[in-house]
């Protein structure tokens, strides 16, 4: 996974839109209702967010935002808040 900047169509997304999109991607990837995912949800609070689902989630986030995470970032992505922080960082 190499690091590159997000696509230009995502650069103007505000924090709220990023969070909503991350939640939607996570819900779709983990096959759970969006209503079950909150901004303070973590890997520990979502039963289906196991190691295989985590890898799928990372790939979907990268694809949906046109960004790439480095290995350290992938390992730190244990909450919605952290994922949103990293997406925002890559889109800056």
Notes on the protein architecture:
This protein is an all-alpha fold. The chain is built from four helices and no strands. It has a single domain, classed as ACP-like (Non-ribosomal Peptide Synthetase Peptidyl Carrier Protein, Chain A). Helix content is 53%, strand content 0%. The N terminus is likely disordered.
What is the distance, rounded to the nearest whole angstrom, between the alpha carbons of the first and last residues?
19 Å
Domains (count) = 1
Residue share in β-strands: under 5%
In terms of per-residue confidence, which ranges show pLDDT below 50 for 5 or more consecutive residues?
1-5
Structural class: mainly alpha
Classified in CATH, the superfamily is ACP-like
Task: Calculate Rg over CA atoms.
Answer: 12 Å
Q: Give the biggest sheet.
A: none
Number of strands: 0
Q: How many H/I helical runs? A: 4
CATH architecture annotation name: Orthogonal Bundle
Return the average pLDDT rounded to an integer: 91
Tell me the helix content. 40-55%
CATH class: Mainly Alpha
Write the CATH fold name.
Answer: Non-ribosomal Peptide Synthetase Peptidyl Carrier Protein, Chain A
What pattern of helices and strands is seen along the backbone?
A: HHHH
- The geometry reads as globular
């Amino acid at each position: 996974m190499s690091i590159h900047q997000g696509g230009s169509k995502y650069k103007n997304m505000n924090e709220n839109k990023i969070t909503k999109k991350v939640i939607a991607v996570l819900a779709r990837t983990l096959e759970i209702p969006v209503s079950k995912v909150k901004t303070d949800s973590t890997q520990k609070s979502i039963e289906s967010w196991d190691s295989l689902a985590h890898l799928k989630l990372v790939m979907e986030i990268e694809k949906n935002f046109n960004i790439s995470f480095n290995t350290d970032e992938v390992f730190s992505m244990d909450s919605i808040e952290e994922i949103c922080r990293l997406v925002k960082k890559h889109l800056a």
